[in-house]
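Appendix B. Chain record.
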Amino acid sequence: MMNKPKPCDMLTDFVTGKQVPNIGAEENRQRVERFLVENRGYSKEDIEVDADIVFNIGDEQVRSNVDLVVRVQGKRFMVLRCVPGSLVSRERETLASARLLDSYQIPFSVVTDGKDAELLDTITGKVIASGMEAIPSKEEAIRRINEIDFLPFPKERLEREKIIFRSYDEMNINVQRRLKRE
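C-alpha cells predicted for this chain:
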C-alpha cells in the first residue's frame, strides 16, 4: 500500500514566484534567496532554483536537484546548498554537486542554513571563509569571473564523485522531489 504524503503548508518562492511545499530547509532557502538579491546584489534572473542534475552510474540514472546556482555573465559561478542543522555535514555533498552539475567545476560552493554560511573553493574543497557576508556579492563575482579557470573535474575521479553525491542525496528526506515521486 502506498502512503500518501502528509499535506503541508505552501509558500511562494522568492525567486520563481511559484508555490512550493514548506518542508525541510525551504524556509532557509527562502532566506538565502532574499539575502542574495537584497544584500548581495544579484537579480532573480541570476539565480537558478532547483537546478537539475542528471548523470549515470553504470546503468543507473541519477536525477536530483541543486538548491540554488548563481550565474554571472552567463557562467555558473556558485552552488548553494540550503540545509537545516550542521553545515560541515553537508560540505562534501555540496562540493560534489558543484563538480558534477556542469562541464566544468563551478568555482564556489556554499553550505548555509540561512543564518550562517561556509564558502568553499570547489577545486580544493577547502573552506575559505565563513559567515553570510562570505558569500560573494555580484560585484565581487563580476570582478573575479575573468580570473577563474573553469576546469573540468578530473576524469579519473569522476565515478567516485558521482557515488559520493548519490550517497548523500539518497539520505535527503523532506525534499520537494520526493513529494513529486509519490
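Further analysis of this model is presented in Appendix C.
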